[in-house]
Write a structure and sequence with these properties.
By secondary structure, the chain is an all-beta fold. The protein has strands spanning 3-11, 15-24, 30-34, 40-46, 49-53, 65-69, 74-82, 88-95, 103-109. It contains no helices and nine strands. A four-stranded antiparallel β-sheet has the order 5-4-8-9, with no helix packed on it. A three-stranded antiparallel β-sheet has the order 1-2-7, with no helix packed on it. The chain starts with a strand and ends with a strand. The mean pLDDT is 95.
Amino acid sequence: MSLDGTLDVSVGADAVTFTFTVENTGGQDQDLQFSDAQTFDIFVESDGETVWQWAEGRMFAQMLSTETLPAGASESFETTWDDPSPGDYEARAVLTANNADCEATASFSV
């Protein structure tokens, strides 16, 4: 599969917004298979330790699903981390499809 990921980070006064974009750079449509309703996750680390994870504490419907990402198309996922502590961080976004690997990273400071 030809999937490319980008992660944009926007630091605000009291929140950090993450936009994870997955683009199908190949010449064919890609069928992405998921084992539950979760399609992505975001991890934020400081000094090698995870300090925030978007999916932590969330419940996802247990259902098999397939989403088609057409050739040349992209899909974006956005989420917010409220009230982060000041510091330097590394964020990693991951597509949770069973049959495809796509992730992106970004460094930022609060």
